[in-house]
Design brief:
The structure is a homodimer of 391-residue chains. The first copy, chain A, is of the alpha/beta class. The first copy, chain A, contains 14 helices and 15 strands. In chain A, the strands form 4 sheets. Chain A has a 7-stranded mixed β-sheet with strand order 2-10-9-8-5-3-4, with helices on both faces. The first copy, chain A, starts with 13 loop residues before the first strand and ends with a helix.
Chain lengths: 391, 391
């Protein structure tokens, strides 16, 4: 017989890639909850709670309509493109790496005319360029990858929002916060965001399998007034909005079967984010402190960084350049042999030059686990061994 | 400390709706597996195994290309519509209830010109009507709901396939087998199917959260030659095909993060289907035997059935009409109080006249559980109590 208190996940290598991340025992136990009807009162209440907690975590109490749909984070891009952009409309993509490229491809699939503003590798898009394009064209939507995990660059979302609202008030703003929600502060209402696309498996510390999206009233108004039909079914907010509203009101309604166990797991995970620690603000502070500590220590070991500047570096992960003379083979395999899984490079132009470490969720917040010290100690040891071999 | 052997799910009401269904302890334990990288060799091997086992279960070894994507079963409709139908092309939907209506709506969202052949409630579409429309129009695709859970009708898929191949050899055939895979025999290669859309939470006995699709070589060839762009990203097979091929070949490749834990759970579930019982053929026989037994016993209690005829009745569920004088209130609530959850009616024209019982997966196959006897005993008791009150 197992219970939530007794349950311990199986022994495994420490997973510290930029997501999926380590998952707490209580969350995994909820992911093994017995089958329950997706329209039962108990499940409806849990589903509704998740929607409300997402609103709280994203500071979206005033204008946010959450959507929680079975899928990967990527499905959030489809939701954004399918619902908000009509064929031929102009969209600007602020591109800080791999995930900016992909978001642009998704928008184009739905007929958007996409202008990509591409930052230099590790840098951020120049705000003057953004203002210029907003003045030249009638831009329906700007998309921003909050943290591009391929480069570890943190976008100055608040600043971009100010500029967009000032220069082109009708333009909608969507952020890809898959690797930001739960580890970076996102002020949906205050920043005037229209869409936040995220997923459970990064800063929220829950297994993958849900597309979590927050849409503004303004965005839903734009959807209501659009002329072209929405050429999607599963990604159509018109299909899902009545479901989300019903679940939040405690009423059953069916469109497609939700991933019942995973919603239970998310429920436990979001409660941990909101209730187990002193405050949400504190959570973001802890992520910053841990991030600075990891980066300082890696720097002492001779690593550089892909982001050109600390202010625009993610707080939930680090994209660290190998010290001179060190290669991926010196680090990735040897760490895995020590039961620590970090990720290699993803940005194709520099993939062999850097590695990526996740320090989000329990790994950052639950310091009793000792994950951070374990990572740093072992990175140092494998670097020392590699250097000794060279000498 | 928990282990696969020790793990016991929490006590709960017996869930015998037409899906999600009861999930075996070993499968739930796999759904609580620790985080692992979605591109690690161990996970790639599990993912590849799942694809291979899906092919086996659907008898699709010769022509089937499996897709396994985070989402609900509904996403399979989008995949079918988005990839195979160009705007303005003719599609025929064989409609046996609620899920036929919805598949038609999905096809229309992608621009298909849909002709719905609607069966009388509980009946099946007349094959002459099907042949007639295939002769009148150039039909790109016929869709068939294998089991429509709103009516419990089982479509004669093999027979429809014969007629379609004979009358209009170029026409593609897609079946919605969400409530059929694992509980009804599906002969992908032999019947000449082009798409099977399914999901884990019904006859396969795994938690919901995956869209499982099998596509034929012919279907992929049609996709290759299509002229109009695919107006979808997450539902686009062009994005996913290289991923599925890579995983099956044991190679890492990334498009969107798969639901790692749920894929582990599916792996255990599919192995149970293929290895724990004498044979797959035996599994379908057991489902038939159990179905006949449940239907015979319900008939003895005075119940009728929504399907007009036993031959076209699902083997994994029963849509039973209340005996004369009995209403939903006499059955659904009283059964729930006895910790048995069945479902009410779903077909809007007759919703109050019937209830639905699932007898798929472990409930049918693992007879040591005693689920079937428990259901029948309690249905009989609540009906007797209701009758006693009337007398």
């Amino acid at each position: 017989m197992s219970s939530a208190q007794e349950f311990q996940q199986a022994p495994h290598k420490l997973l510290v890639i930029p997501g999926p991340i380590e998952v707490d025992n209580r969350i995994l136990y909820a992911n093994a909850s017995p089958s329950v009807s997706h329209v039962s009162p108990a499940f409806i209440s849990i589903f509704g709670d998740c929607l409300r907690m997402l609103r709280t975590i994203l500071y979206a109490e005033k204008t946010g309509q959450p959507f929680m749909i079975a899928g990967s984070g990527t499905l959030g891009w489809d939701q954004t493109a399918a619902n908000l952009v009509e064929p031929g409309e102009e969209v600007v993509v602020l591109n800080h790496g791999y995930f900016g490229d992909s978001f642009a491809e998704c928008l184009e699939a739905y007929g958007a005319k996409v202008t990509v503003l591409k930052a230099p590798i590790g840098g951020i898009v120049d705000e003057n360029e953004l203002v210029k394009v907003l003045k030249e064209k009638k831009v329906k939507l700007v998309t921003i990858t909050h943290v591009d995990t391929s480069t570890g660059v943190l976008s100055p979302v608040e600043r971009y929002c100010e500029l967009i609202h000032k220069t082109s008030p009708d333009t909608l703003i969507a952020i890809d916060a898959v690797c930001a929600a739960g580890s970076e502060e996102i002020r949906f209402d205050d920043w005037g965001l229209d869409v936040v696309v995220t997923a459970p498996q990064k800063g929220l510390g829950v297994p993958p399998g849900l597309s979590l999206v927050m849409a503004s009233k303004k965005a839903l108004g734009v959807l209501e007034k659009r002329k072209a039909p929405v050429t999607a079914y599963y990604a159509s907010w018109r299909r899902w909005l009545p479901i989300m509203q019903a679940y939040e009101a405690g009423q059953p309604k069916y469109f497609a079967t939700p991933p019942v166990q995973l919603v239970n797991a998310l429920h436990v995970g979001l409660k941990q984010v909101l209730e187990d620690k002193p405050s949400l603000e504190e959570r973001f502070k802890v992520h910053k402190q841990v991030s600075n500590y990891v980066k300082d220590e890696l720097e002492k070991m001779g690593c550089g960084f892909v982001p050109l500047d600390r202010a625009n570096s993610a707080n939930g992960m680090t994209a660290a350049r190998y010290p001179k003379g060190i290669t991926a083979a010196d680090v990735l395999g040897p760490l895995a042999e020590r039961d620590i899984v970090v990720a290699g490079g993803l940005h194709k132009e520099i993939a062999s030059e850097y590695f990526r470490v996740g320090h989000m969720g329990v790994t950052a917040v639950d310091q009793q686990r000792g994950d951070i010290e374990k990572i740093l100690k072992n990175v140092k040891e494998v670097l020392d061994i590699a250097r000794a071999k060279q000498a």
